Amino acid sequence: MFIGIDLGTSSVKTILINSDQKTLASHTEPIELLNPKNGYYEQNPEVWITATFLCFEKIRQQKPKEFEIVDSLAISGQMHGATLIDKNFNVLRNCILWNDTRSMKECIEMTSIYPNIEEESGNLAMPGFTAPKILWIKKNEPEIFKKIYKILLPKDYLRFRLSGDFVTDMSDASGTLWLNVKNRNWSSDLLNLTSISLDNMPKLVEGSECSTYVDKKLAKKIGFKSNVIIAGGAGDQAAGAAGSGVIHFNQSVISLGTSGVYFSPSVNYSSNAKKAVHSFCHCLPNTWHHMSVMLSATNCIDWISNTLGLNINKSFEHIEDYCLNILQENNTPYFLPYLSGERTPHNNSNIRGSFHQINTSTTKSAMLYAVLEGVTFGIKNGYEIIEEINNKTEETYIVGGGSKSEFWANFISSAINKKIIIGEDSNLGPSLGVARLAMMATNNFSKKEVFKKMPIKKETHINEQLSNILDKRYKKWLEIVSTNLQIADKLL
Question: In whole angstroms, what is the distance from residue 303 CA to residue 314 CA?
Answer without folding.
Answer: 14
